[in-house]
Amino acid sequence: MFLLTSMFVLIWTINRFFLSLKGLFLLVELFIGTFFIIIVLGIYEMITGVHYKRSSLNELEVDGYWGITSVFHNQNDFATYLILNLPLLFLYTFSYERKIGRKLFVMVVSLSGVFCLFYTASRANILAFIIFLLCSACYSVVRKPTLGKILIMFGLPLLLIANIDRLLILLSMVLPEGAYNKISSMILFFDPSQAVESDSSFGTRDELWNAGLDYLQNSFFLGIGAGQVEVYNAQNGFPVHNIHNWWLEVLVNFGLPIFLLYVSMYSYLIIKNVIISWRSEGIRSTVARANAFTLLIYIISAASTSSAIHFAMQWSIVALAILTIRIDKVEFANEHSRHIPYVSQD
């Protein structure tokens, strides 16, 4: 409960001190600056092969293991952090920023983040990133359709599919063997029966998820209590205590009623930010669109991450989505009032 309370304090703090268009811009700059630092640390780890102190890769017996975790405990958490930031950076670069120098800087940082994402070989997060690109292209075409956008939207995927062999060769040249093997087997992500046999991570997750659903059923769907799923897994002899699925963590720990409330809130944030992005312009539209896409693809990403209740970046995105709604409400009212004609009382 302490961790959950801390995250609520984070949401309150962001909405208390950044409640203006200027504050929104400063918060985006803070996100970009933090992302840059974490990416630099990740690339340094990639080049040197030296993992940081809190990295779980230090526990492996093999020296110089190919993975990277940057400031996080494991590769999945690092990949989840990347996927929570990349939509904002991409849309900020291509939809808002006009200064060439800053645009190039954010673009380079974004592409470096994409490379780090592939280097982690987190299949769920890579899939989430691909879905973001598709959703972003569809949104752009529907909002302002042009022949060029339509050709790119349909032509680029077909081009990639037609040259999938060359793409795999390119990935094999720039990625370590372990990462390449995991990414090339992403097709197994859609076939759990094969995945359990060929990849132990799928089998472990399947066991954890089934156990979690058993705990939930035994609690009459009211939940077993905050943080208790890890205690139960430890008591039942699981080598991995965390359920490794944020949605199941909420459902099993807090029960079906709280889970439905959380899903309702989550859906509201997505829909409201889509509406804001559609009817507004500038930084409001860009951030709202990024919020909606990030929350949407996080549905997939959160299905593979370790415990997210303490994951500040997840709650920061929720806070940013709420902040955008509040700022839009004020700005929309101001814009509307400026267009109301003055009527004399005489």
UniProtKB/TrEMBL annotation:
Transmembrane segments: 21-44, 78-96, 103-120, 126-142, 154-175, 246-271, 292-313
Domain O-antigen ligase-related: 110-263
Any one Gene Ontology cellular component term annotated for this protein: membrane
Protein's recorded name: O-antigen ligase-related domain-containing protein
Keywords: Membrane, Transmembrane, Transmembrane helix
Any coiled-coil regions, as ranges: none
Signal peptide range in chain numbering: none
Main localisation: membrane
Keyword Mitochondrion attributed: no
Organism this protein belongs to: Aneurinibacillus danicus
Location of the protein in the cell: Membrane
Topology of this chain in the membrane: Multi-pass membrane protein
